[in-house]
Amino acid sequence: MGVGSRKIMTAAVIAGSIMLAACSSQGSSTSSQAADSKAVQSAGNAQKEKTVEQALPPIKEATGVPEKDKQAIMKVLNQYITSFNHEDINAYIRTLSPHSTSFKIDDEKQFMQKTFKKMSMDMTPKQMMIIDYKGNTANVFTDMDTTVVERSSGDKMDRSSRQIITLNKESDGWKISKLFAMENQQ
Questions:
Q1: What residue ranges do the domains of the chain occupy?
Q2: Over the Cα atoms of the chain, what is R_g?
Q3: pLDDT for the residue 57
Q4: What is the annotated signal peptide range for this record (predicted)?
Q5: Are 128 and 140 in contact (CB under 8 A)?
Q6: Which member of 44, 65, 69, 89 lies 3.0 to 4.6 Å from 133 by CB, making a disulfide possible if both were Cys?
Q7: From CA 16, how far away is CA 6, in angstroms rounded?
Q8: Where does the pLDDT of residue 17 fall: very low under 50, low under 70, confident under 90, or very high at 90 and above?
Q9: Domain spanning 3-183: which CATH class is it, in words?
């Protein structure tokens, strides 16, 4: 794999993780390097995960989710994806929880600004469903396609990932607090 392909692979894995995993509250001064390291590690582990992924049970939608909450949760996720695709960092940040223990808002904003200078990314959900709901917390499964284009070279890479996005109901509505992702094998 060439250097350009490696960069795009790293970007695709990062995008598949929707950037949040890269900006943990620990080591925030090196969040960009940590993201690159995690992305490369994820790419290396992807092949090992293949047999696990093939044995996954079917995803089931949670029952008993009030329609009002379901609509509000899906609206936030759609705003999150739309703002990401349009590179609207302020709208993107508004979908995130300032109370998250997985990332810091300021670090996430800086990281996204740097990322969007280098790459154009587009996320397209193939599937989104609430799989766990407990009043003020919801976990949403997404099957996400991501296209990454490196601005300097025009190199393009398409990736698909399975994600679990955790949202918390806060005083100003539902906010994304965590994200876990695993790249699908093609």
A1: 3-183
A2: 16
A3: 73
A4: 1-34
A5: yes
A6: 65
A7: 15
A8: very low
A9: alpha beta
Report the first-to-last Cα separation within the chain, whole angstroms. 17
Give the predicted TM-score (pTM) of the model: 0.73
* DSSP letters spanning the chain: --HHHHHHHHHHHHHHTTTGGG--SSSGGGHHHHHHHHHHHHHHHHTTTHHHHHTPPPP-PPSS--HHHHHHHHHHHHHHHHHHHTT-HHHHHHTB-TT-SS--HHHHHHHHHHHHHHEEEEEEEEEEEEEEE-SSEEEEEEEEEEEEEETTT--EEEEEEEEEEEEEEETTEEEEEEEEEEEPP-
Write out pLDDT tens, residues 84-127.
Answer: 999 999 999 999 999 999 999 999 999 999 999 999 999 999 99
86 phi and psi angles, rounded to 5 deg: -90, 5
Q: How confident is the model at residue 56 (pLDDT cuts 50, 70, 90)?
A: low
Q: What is the pLDDT of residues 129-185, one digit of tens each?
A: 999 999 999 999 999 999 999 999 999 999 999 999 999 999 999 999 999 999 987
CA distance 21 to 34: 9
